[in-house]
Input
Amino acid sequence: MGEGKKPDNVVFNTETQQYDAAIKPYATSVGAPVITTTDTVAWKNRSIRKVNQKVQTKYLELKAEYERMMEEFEYNNLIFNAKFTFEPIIGDVYHLYKRENGETFLSIIAPNECNFNAMGSFYLNADQIWEKV
Output
């Protein structure tokens, strides 16, 4: 062993010229417990799968809600652009028809009471939004 060289099992810091085994963040003696790293790969993979599944589910819910809103918007746009000569009453059901010339009109007459080209029946809710019946 060279001059000033300490044995491998002695923790001596050559920069500070001190024995510093007590302040090391890891075990320094043969009898100390073994430090092993936790395998987090499986946990990460499970977590990634869960997050991906949650995001995918939320995306599908939002997409379905968006499609429902767009359908509602289209119906409301169609009805508000239709011809009618009365003021619709909230809570009542009205029927949308299409004439041969492509013009649409709203009526209180039900499809089974006439021979018009029916496009659907709609309910005017309290928010004054038309809902398809």
